[in-house]
UniProtKB/TrEMBL annotation:
Originating organism: Arcanobacterium bovis
Compartment list: Cell membrane
One BP term from GO: protein transport by the Tat complex
Gene name per UniProt: tatA
Subunit: The Tat system comprises two distinct complexes: a TatABC complex, containing multiple copies of TatA, TatB and TatC subunits, and a separate TatA complex, containing only TatA subunits. Substrates initially bind to the TatABC complex, which probably triggers association of the separate TatA complex to form the active translocon.
Domain of life of the native organism: Bacteria
Protein name (record): Sec-independent protein translocase protein TatA
Keyword Disulfide bond set for record: no
UniProt key word Hydrolase: no
InterPro entries: TatA/B/E, TatA/E
Classification via HAMAP family: TatA_E
Amino acid sequence: MKPAHIIILLVVIIVVFGAAKLPDIARSIGQSAKILKKEMKELTEDDKPNPPSQNSTENNN
């Protein structure tokens, strides 16, 4: 994407949402990304098998 396209895109976003709402939108997107990363991390941790625990019932000889 050329720099001119990026500038045009930013101008359109400012016109559509208004300059006052941009910080709120950015904050909301950041919070959503944080929640998404947290959930993805929890899902990958859930997929890992837990090592077998060595209970005292196994070693009672």
